[in-house]
Fold this sequence. Notes:
The structure is a homodimer. Chain A is an all-alpha fold. Chain A contains 9 helices and no strands. Chain A has a domain at 59-185: Orthogonal Bundle (Tetracycline Repressor, domain 2), CATH 1.10.357.10. In chain A, helix 1 (13-27) crosses helix 2 and helix 4 (55-72) runs parallel beside helix 7 (115-142). At the A-B interface, helix 5, helix 6, helix 7, helix 8 and helix 9 of A face helix 6, helix 7, helix 8 and helix 9 of B.
Amino acid sequence: MTATRTDRGPRSRDAILQAASDLCREQGYAAVTMEAIATRARVGKPTLYRWWPSKGAVFLDVVLDKLVEPAIELPDTGDMVRDLRTWIRGFADLFTDPHARQLLVGLLGAAQTDTELATVLREKVQRPLQAGNRQRIIAAQDAGELPAMDPTLLEELLISPPWYRLLVSGEPVTREYADQLVDAVLSVRPQRPTAAPPQK
Amino acid sequence: MTATRTDRGPRSRDAILQAASDLCREQGYAAVTMEAIATRARVGKPTLYRWWPSKGAVFLDVVLDKLVEPAIELPDTGDMVRDLRTWIRGFADLFTDPHARQLLVGLLGAAQTDTELATVLREKVQRPLQAGNRQRIIAAQDAGELPAMDPTLLEELLISPPWYRLLVSGEPVTREYADQLVDAVLSVRPQRPTAAPPQK
DNA sequence: AACGCGAAACGTAACGTTCAGTTTTGACAG
DNA sequence: CTGTCAAAACTGAACGTTACGTTTCGCGTT
């Protein structure tokens, strides 16, 4: 037994992810099968299943490699308002690009009926981004650059509408929309601590 | 003309939708198959496929029958702010109920990889609701009850975060969250017509 | 000689369709 | 109003297909 055996990636990880990405571009997410990925990447199906339990898991890694790092992180130029605008514009660009759109919509769709995948997706994408952004938002609020409100809610007000358009309404997410959205959210008046006006 | 039968509609529509709903509650959306629905409803598979092209189409009708009418429409008591609060709370309740959650998440997930289904979903749910709400929002803005901004954006700011939590982040959608959300969005200052501050 | 991997083959599950044989329906004659 | 009948629609079983996920085999590397 030569020590730990399972903790290295497959030899041809890149070939596999590239194959999956290409197939998705050519035929759309739904039409891609594990068999096709294996064939295209010239690997055996057992090898594929050895490291990824499902099609969704493969595409999660595709998205992590190709989209998340470069395109989804909040930039940091010192000007928070400007950074937020750039960030949301980045989502608009991402959601407009047909290939990225295919990848994200397919992956999120799969995650809706695959608990395992949904968990990993949140831990690997959601969690890290949110944690980092949260600190930035709080700091900017303290500096008076952003409206004083629950930082989680502020982030959600910015990021939810693009996702809603992508996954629910299907409306396009343009840069103009991104700008309009940021303007609106940053125009919120400071909130009273938590006192919701009595409903009745 | 006695109209040949009740035009359209299988004889046992209700039995089929009930079977689908029950199976979803018992086993989860993903585990439900067309075969199982047919068996449970004591209907032949051909009959099922005669009226619904896919599992997603069946569940769309389940959702239309059981959720949309009673639970997703914006109420109208004359007090728009209060109506909006009630409306978003309704979504919170819906997204918290395990069965409704299963149905909605499964259906939306399927729609991500089924263009046909996505189109019908938008036409039958999205479109009608949005159109009605839009008029109400504009009227309330004219009356000074709501912040002056693009009515579509205002609606999206309210409705997106719950959907985002349901489909993307997985965070719970409580009534408290709904109230907090409405408070924040209604605190937006009137927007300058469209003048986005120059980015550079 | 042993190992790891690609390729092929296998059993399973669900799909969506086809094919009898039966039940339901509405129309019409008595 | 009622009995009869043909057409339509339905059930249930079976079929071919596809993709899944696993197992087996053989080859090349070490």
